Amino acid sequence: MNQEIENLWLKMNRRQALRTVGAGLGYMALGSLLADGSKTAGKFSHHPARAKRIIYLFQSGGPSQVDLFDHKPALAKHHGSDIFKHVEQQGRLTGFNNNRKILPVITSKYSFAQHGQTGSWTSELLPHMAGIADDLCTIRSMTTIPINHDPAMTFMQTGHNLPGRPSMGSWLSYGLGTMNQNLPEFVALVSSGDLPNMQPLNSRLWGNGFLPGKHQGVRLRSGTEPVLYLNDPSGKTLKEKRSILDAINSLNREEANRSGDPSVDTRIAQYEMAFRMQTSIPELADFANEPESTYKLYGEDARKPGTFAFNCLMARRLAERDVRFIQLYHSGWDHHFNLPAHLPKRCREVDQATAGLITDLKQRGLLDDTIVVWGGEFGRSTYSQNGKVMEAYGRDHHPGCFTKLLAGGGFKPGLQFGETDDFSYRVTKDEVSVHDLHATLLHQLGINHERLVYFFQGRRYRLTDVHGHVVKKLLV
What we know:
Elements (H helix, E strand, L loop, with lengths): L2 H9 L2 H10 L1 H13 L15 E7 L5 H4 L43 E4 L4 E4 L3 H4 L5 E8 L5 H10 L9 H9 L9 E7 L25 E2 L18 H22 L2 H24 L6 H7 L9 H13 L4 E7 L7 H25 L6 E6 L3 E6 L10 E4 L3 E6 L8 E2 L1 E2 L6 E3 L2 E2 H11 L9 E3 L2 E3 L15
Parallel strand pairs: 1-7, 1-8, 4-12, 4-15, 5-6, 5-7
Antiparallel strand pairs: 2-3, 4-11, 8-11, 9-10, 13-14, 16-17
């Protein structure tokens, strides 16, 4: 009896054992096939890939599309009037506004202009991103289902609004495997502005869900020590540390053979990765060789650990080292109140760094096989948050239409895709759902989203659940 079948017997309860005995050699053959199938993780490439990696610049809280990208000059004419005199209400309102008598239309106070050869409309708040308009694929017709932050962020990251599913980076780690043995396949970086974060960025947003633990995203801390406890103060040589790790792993392999617990395999993999990162992480975090031109491109904030600009520069360095999925979270976009005081600050924090990252990747020849995604979990409403017309207006959550930006990786540069009505309330042409976005991103990485599956608790799961289609109009 080989080791795999012996482990299978050790884990069986009585009912499973009786069923296996009754099925005889058929179940033994199935066990052998399943054992062989476990080695296929990382081999879900179904067609030639256009891109190898994703950098996802997630703006937590929901940027206001109507103040940044979705230009609606007709709002000025109807400023102050009840939104539902002009559009039919669809879906539910949040608890902030479901008892308001009127919800007055508020026109954006920011000017818009067309940029680039394609004439993409962009707000005055994003001058650097406007300067690379011809590199951006703009989807103005995104829609989502959840109306509140936590389920909407979870849905955008995992394809489901309830916790427990693997995040997109974990799916890619599972489906495609690593391109760099010395760094994690999936890295998360977090930054925030001066607005207190009203929605916590829970680690489950970069979690592995029911996938094996080795596919969990690794959050890097800001500064010169992105991963704690990598430095060994014992003064032992590399050879001595290797021998200690070999001894530990030998014990862990015995435990894995005895118990059949997959978490032990994850532990072994984590020990090995930590050993390799003792060299790779200090080198990654050493910005000493970055020229002054880098900081002119990304902005002076790129010198400050913990800023969005610093994390964008780190993302480029991770992309150079072939990390598969790099997730940046920047909080502070939840502008229910006094949007004019807060939105310009958020834009200053991300505008130059976003444009700098895309420009840098392009100059280095990395943008062709890197997809950059920019956007939040939903958009903001055209009507005033508190039911009043005022200078310090705020905007409520709005899942009915919002904007996502993409660059590189075979997405059409300069494309303005999708249309919304005069009030940026609903999509009128070319709707793109979250599942559609996920399916299209996977397609560019060489994956058929319907075939990237994982069997768990009696059913086959996938990132796009039972939905989604590839939006080929977005692609070159």
